[in-house]
Design goal:
359 residues, alpha/beta, Rossmann fold, Glutathione S-transferase Yfyf (Class Pi), Chain A, domain 2, 2 domains, six-stranded antiparallel beta sheet, 45% helix, binds adenosine-5'-triphosphate, DNA-binding_RecF, DNA replication and repair protein RecF
Amino acid sequence: MYLQKISLVNFKNIESQTFDFQQKINCFVGDNGVGKTNVLDAIYYLSFAKSYFNSVAIQNIKHNEPFFMIEGEYSLNNRTEQIVCSLKRGQKKVLKRNGKNYDKFSEHIGQIPLVIISPADRDLVTEGSDTRRKFIDGVISQQNKTYLQDLIAYNKVLSQRNALLKYFAANRTFDALNLSVYNEQLAAYGTKIYEVRKDFLEKFIPIFNEKYQIISGDKESVNLLYKSQLQEYSMLEVLKKSLEKDKILQYTTSGIHKDDLSFEIEEYPIKKFGSQGQQKSYLIALKLAQFEFIKQQSNIIPILLFDDIFDKLDENRVLQLIELVNNDEFGQIFITDTHQERTENIVKQSNKPYKIFKL
Ligand SMILES: Nc1ncnc2c1ncn2[C@@H]1O[C@H](COP(=O)(O)OP(=O)(O)OP(=O)(O)O)[C@@H](O)[C@H]1O
């Protein structure tokens, strides 16, 4: 599967542009702010019906324009598939496949598998646990729709339980029976979610370690650990233990919505003890593991977007990445960089067909 062509109208800073792509490697080069990342984001949009960088949909329409449109032509199983995503101010976003509207965008997710590696991924290291949970949930739910439904159901019960705790506090009352209805539901969904996360991470972590060792050339050891209160107690026990605290704080302080991933280098948190290049290598390894996982599950080689990939990586790590690309693990790749010469020199070493777009 690969993207043959994309046409953009009024998408962010791009007024109107069409690109015909190479089946293997495509590079966008140019100065800061010319719109290289915006083209990658448009490609991301066609897979997920949303931007990777700006979650406020209308802010992706070019300033002072009434709409944006992204049209992509893919080669999929020797057929051409057309995906169009458009948004008019004041109207709902529209997503079409071969001219037919999708009612639910979720039906489209996973059809054009894609992984993006971008400097914005730094949030996974620097931000709170919700960013890391979103990452795991995103990878799992691309392939497991039941998981996504369980997660939505869990979050709904969670807000109902929180509303009840607030009601108890406001009315100086408490009803254990009423609360237990929510506890039972949280336990049912929470346990299922925990089991899926645990199974997923058991498969994912070895793939991640392997990728990190390749990129770093076995230079340092890293760890990725799953942290969940359910590793020690059942969900019902966890809720019981935190009841007094929950009553005081008026929200549910324990459960799988507090799960986290611990990122370590030489057994220390990478956030505090990893260099910029090591942190970047860690994030690339995470995303390449995601790539591998999606490929195994869907049997389609995902499109890979490398945003500003070469910055902060030493020459050896860049070479290791090129090695990875060379062994045919990958399908179509899009790269952005500010240095045309550097990009050309690097991609030449891959012995794969490539095309460079100067923006
Ligand atoms: N809705 C919008 N309308 C017009 N311009 C926009 C909109 N959203 C973003 N931009 C502009 O797009 C430009 C950023 O483009 P992009 O992030 O693709 O740059 P880049 O070429 O990747 O740069 P860098 O090398 O710095 O990463 C900025 O100038 C930004 O102001």
